[in-house]
Design goal:
This protein is of the alpha/beta class and 421 residues long. It folds into 4 domains: 34 residues; 64 residues, Helix Hairpins, CATH 1.10.287; 149 residues, Histidine kinase-like ATPase, C-terminal domain (Heat Shock Protein 90), CATH 3.30.565; 129 residues, Response regulator (Rossmann fold, 3-Layer(aba) Sandwich). It is built from 13 helices and 12 strands. Strands 2-4-5-7-6 form a 5-stranded mixed β-sheet. It has a 5-stranded parallel β-sheet with strand order 9-8-10-11-12, sandwiched between helices. A two-stranded antiparallel sheet has the order 1-3. Helix 4 packs parallel to helix 5. The chain is globular, with a radius of gyration of 28 Å. It catalyses: ATP + protein L-histidine = ADP + protein N-phospho-L-histidine. Its EC number is 2.7.13.3.
Length: 421
Amino acid sequence: MANQDSITGSHPPSNDDLAAEVAALRLLLAERDAELARLRAEAGQARERRSDFLGMLAHELRNPLAPISLANTMLAKLPEPSSGLLNLHAVIHRQLQNLTRLLDELLDAASIDSGQLVLARVPVELGAVLRRALHTVQVRILERHQHLHMDLPEDLSVHGDPARLAQVFANLLANASRYTADGGTIRVAAHAHEGRALLTVADNGAGMNQDELAGMFDLFTRGTRATVRAEGGLGVGLNVVRNIVELHDGKVIGASDGPGRGSVFTVSLPLLVSDGAQAALAPGALPPSRRILLVEDNLDANDTLGQLLLDEGHKVTAAYDGIAGLALARTQVFDVLICDINLPGLNGYELITQLRRTAGAHIPFAIAISGYGQMEDRTRAIGAGFGQYVLKPIDIDALLALVASSAVTRFIAAAAVGSGR
């Protein structure tokens, strides 16, 4: 037996030994689960801090950008501006666009990362979206004497967010221009295929190697192509493109035959089944004159925006804090309220809330303006009673169009009927 014991080894473990091992394993698993929970909580807190920081950063940077943008708009409106002045205006305008784009890309990346990017989807014609995208980048293309060829049928429609889709194609066009030499060629084409719209943006520029192709949609990835043309960028644009397209139930892929042989990006989106052609817009009348209350505590922004509105024929009353703005809104009749959110005394949320609670007060069409670009900021403003939320630096043409729009006219007419005026 002794020889047999030496062959088979020691006796099997007892029940007590097995129980101790199971207890030790359970303890290790509990410690692992606790560590994973702690890491997930820390990651969530870090993501929240990052989003808060980016939101505050965007607000603080947009505040000075707003009066600069408005002042630059006024430069071009001076009587008989010299060619030198117009050149300076163009330079400032381009750099403001670059700064605004960088801020928007950072905020979009944060919103996507936190799952807060929400689409406002409507039936949209892709040709119009592409032309809107081209408008944002065509100055860059013209400056570099690049040749743009577009083949866009007029009958491709999808169910999508027009602003976000325009952002997708503006990013792809800007990317193509950035990595294509002066005098190069960019081609944009679209067609239907098996129930989907296929849109391509192709260039004969720098191209990509296999490593760049593998990581081109990753966040904060620029690759060695960034050395081709140092125009700035955070390596965010293509990541935003991919996420917006996927939120539209679509797909985007990039391809290249190698360095120096150009690139092709293809976006695939599900087509919208049309139930009839959309009615054409009726030609608009002359822009109406509105009675506007402008509440903005930044003196430069208030003065420049007020002057631009006056130049368009509107009647403008200015207030520089929330308390004064609310007092004017309660005692006078205005068609439109343009109100900053971050005001002293009363903030914009409090102003519109208290105005709507004031018995007998006339409620104007309310437009919030703010440097905060997160979705919860927009949702809070609309929930408080604003009809529109406009991000700084203000697109003055879009704001003027909104003020003069038929939506505001209908709002004013309904308010007049409701008040018996």
